[in-house]
Structure formats: C-alpha cells, structure tokens
Design a protein that fits this description.
The protein is mostly helical. The protein is about 60% helix and about 5% strand. About 10% of the residues are buried.
C-alpha cells in the first residue's frame, strides 16, 4: 500500500495590524503560546479556545518550534510595543487616572477600617 503525503498550509496569518493570528480565528499566536507555556495541552487549548481546531493548535506549535528565535523576537517586540502604548495612554490620561486612583485609595481605606492602603 502506498500513501500520499500532503503539504498542509501553516495555520497562521498576519492581520492588517501585524498580529499573527491562528487559523481563521481572531486568536493571536501570543495567546496560544501563553496557554501552552502555562502547561495546557494542545487538546485543552483547542477546547478552551473553541474557534481553533486541534490541528490549528498543533500546526501553530509546530511552526513555533521550527522558528522559535524569530517568533520569540516577534513576541518581545509585541511586548515592547504594548508597553510603549501603555505609557502613552498613561501620560495622555495622567490627570484623569490620578483622580481615579485617589477615589480607589479612598474606597480601599474605607474597606480597611480607615487605614491607608498598602503600597503597590
């Protein structure tokens, strides 16, 4: 008996924002890898992210293993971009955030018997 092996496409795509998405879903590779690094098995990931197939999860992980340094660099860049965006939002909303933090501290102090909340 002879079998024909098929070349399957990689179940990853880059969307218009530059994020790598898995399969035809909106799930990012970042999220899938985060669950995998937390110790979830591929079948658990597919069940938890039910817009993915088990084949999508295995295919994405296989691609990651073959291109680990490139993907790790992509993930580091995404983290840096997210941090930069967070800092920009905080700076743009500093006065608003300060008043919200003040109100939150007041509520925490009331819940803590009038004592100031512990430093974060």
């Amino acid at each position: 008996m002879s079998i024909t092996l098929h070349t399957d496409p990689v179940p990853l795509r880059v969307d218009d924002t530059g994020a790598i998405r898995v399969g035809q879903s909106r799930v990012t590779l970042d999220v899938l890898l985060q669950y995998w690094r937390l110790g979830m098995a591929p079948a658990e990931i597919a069940r938890g992210l039910d817009t993915l197939t088990l084949a999508d999860v295995h295919g994405a992980l296989a691609y990651y293993f073959r291109h680990e340094s490139e993907i790790d660099q992509y993930l580091r860049q995404r983290e840096a971009d997210a941090e930069q965006l967070r800092q920009q939002h905080e700076a743009a909303n500093a006065s608003r955030l300060a008043s919200l933090k003040e109100r939150l501290d007041t509520v925490k102090a009331q819940e803590n018997g009038g004592h100031a909340p512990a430093a974060d």
